[in-house]
Amino acid sequence: MKAIFLAAGLAGLGAGAASAHSWYDAWCCDDRDCAPYPAALVSITDTGYRLDDGTVVPFDEARTSKDGAYHRCVLHGRQRCFYAPPMSF
Question: What is the residue range of the signal peptide feature (predicted)?
Fold first, then answer.
């Protein structure tokens, strides 16, 4: 009986991981081009978020992350969207 619950729980975890970022805006290219972005690579400046590659995302261009982490969407080598945790605005 415990094995059945464990298997069901593990299957549920897999399904959750697969759709964990299904909240990305379609314009940002969904799960294909969006990925979590390490907080250690983000600095908050007076004007916005400075990323480790020198890109600065103005506060008013950042979208609100729904999981409390940073996320970056890049399409054809160009940043399309950047998500930031609500408390960092």
Answer: 1-20
Distance CA 74, CA 1 (A): 46
Q: State in Å, rounded, how far the first CA of the chain is from the last one.
A: 47
CA dist 24 → 1, 2, 34 (Å)? 38, 36, 8
Predicted TM-score (pTM) of the model is 0.72
Walk along the chain (89 residues) and give the pLDDT tens digit of each residue: 444 444 444 444 444 333 456 788 888 876 678 999 999 999 999 999 999 999 999 999 999 999 999 999 998 889 999 999 987 44
Residue 45 contacts residue 20 (beta carbons within 8 Å): no
Contact between residue 84 and residue 63 where contact means Cβ atoms under 8 Å apart: yes
